[in-house]
Design brief:
mainly alpha
């Protein structure tokens, strides 16, 4: 049981590391386009989507 929890936590951490980098880049890009926050929100949503999927797949695979 604790193994699964640790693996899920690790998967969340890894997936968020993959999300933080592209979002940071998108945020820097949007800084040049101050009047269009929709782009950043779109990228944020887009980058956030794979995180729960990755965690779920990893949790199921390592069950």
């Amino acid at each position: 049981m604790t193994k699964i929890i640790v693996k899920v936590a690790l998967a969340i951490l890894v997936s968020y590391l993959f999300i933080a980098a592209p979002f940071d880049a998108a945020n820097k890009m949007a800084m040049g386009i101050k009047n269009q926050p929709i782009i950043t929100n779109f990228w944020l949503i887009l980058m956030m989507l794979p995180a729960p999927v990755i965690t779920f797949v990893v949790a199921v695979r390592n069950r």
